[in-house]
Amino acid sequence: MITVPVIVPASPVRNVLGTLPVRPNGTRHRVPETPRKRKTPVSDRLLGIKVLKESLADVKYRVRERLGLGFDLDDWQGELIRRLRQGYDSLLVAGTGYGKSIIFEGLAALNKTKVVIVVCPLKALERDQVKGAEKKGLKAVMVNEDTVCPEIWTGLRQGHANLYYVSPEMALSSSSVQGW
């Protein structure tokens, strides 16, 4: 018969489950831990995030009234508008006809002193969006290589319109960026 010596390590090793093995004398090895305390926040709000008093229902109602819509916004539309107004970054991916236009039109309608810039991939889509926004009482401008002129950038800086539809090429060109 072969005997195998039992080797007990000086410091216990955790097993696969993360528990410490029991020592031969029946005691468990205790690892000193750092005490965990939650820090109290310096302020109630995150940096750059505004606290809005209006509810989701308020946002949906105000957008509907300002744009003269004959339908109610979906909850996701109202919530996205509300969060964008608070200062959160957002990304919306939705198919054709899902109501993306209401998001930026609603932002423009609720924030008359702010400018909403929409990067639009097609000139025809830019034209349609501008017409639709103007029918809803918004001041909208289309910016692409066909419409470029210094007055557009002056108007942007002075707040003549609150909704700008910009082609990707214009959004990335150095002369356009200087105009912003």
Task: Report on this structure.
It is a single chain. This protein has helices at 56-67, 75-86, 100-110, 123-135, 150-158, 168-172, 174-179; strands spanning 116-119, 140-143, 163-166. The protein starts with 55 loop residues before the first helix and ends with a helix. The model has no long low-confidence stretch (mean pLDDT 78). Helix 1 packs across helix 2 (75-86), helix 1 packs across helix 3 and helix 2 (75-86) packs across helix 3. Strands 1-3-2 form a three-stranded parallel β-sheet. It is mostly helical and 180 residues long. It contains seven helices and three strands; from the N terminus they run H-H-H-E-H-E-H-E-H-H. Helices cover 38% and strands 7% of the residues. The chain folds into two domains: 48-112, no CATH class; 115-180, no CATH class. This is DEAD/DEAH-box helicase domain-containing protein.
